[in-house]
Automatic annotation (TrEMBL):
Keywords: Amino-acid biosynthesis, Cytoplasm, Histidine biosynthesis, Hydrolase, Magnesium, Metal-binding, Zinc. The gene is hisI. InterPro entries: PRA-CH (IPR026660), PRib_AMP_CycHydrolase_dom (IPR002496), PRib_AMP_CycHydrolase_sf (IPR038019). It catalyses: 1-(5-phospho-beta-D-ribosyl)-5'-AMP + H2O = 1-(5-phospho-beta-D-ribosyl)-5-[(5-phospho-beta-D-ribosylamino)methylideneamino]imidazole-4-carboxamide. It comes from Denitrificimonas halotolerans. This is Phosphoribosyl-AMP cyclohydrolase. Pathway: Amino-acid biosynthesis; L-histidine biosynthesis; L-histidine from 5-phospho-alpha-D-ribose 1-diphosphate: step 3/9. One of its GO terms (molecular function) is phosphoribosyl-AMP cyclohydrolase activity. The keyword Glycoprotein does not apply. It is found in: Cytoplasm. It comes from the Bacteria. Pfam families: PRA-CH.
Amino acid sequence: MSNWLDDIKWDSNGLIPAIAQDYKTERILMVAWLNRESLELTVKEQRAIYWSRSRKKLWRKGEESGHIQKLHEVRLDCDADVIILRVEQLGNIACHTGRHSCFYRVLKDEQWQTVEPVLKDPHDIYQGS
């Protein structure tokens, strides 16, 4: 019997992109990366745990900010190379900029325009950062 993790097409670095999606509204909150360990822990702990490529370590979403993503469902796409984590975003802030979603800019007239407000000042979220 094969392990469900073996069905995933990991990239050459052992990673797969993960889309965090609000399980109620279906809004895309953010994109991050998973490795085998982080995905296994995400399922085990029922919260989003990513692999930080810049820090080269596990990143439990909300470990510093308190904005935890409670897991509701994991989906694998048809090519087995992208994951969707359907989550409940605790605190209603997914972005390190203090916004609900990391996708807060829209291209209008060949310019990126911010269309979503800051819900909480990042300095207040990441004290000492």
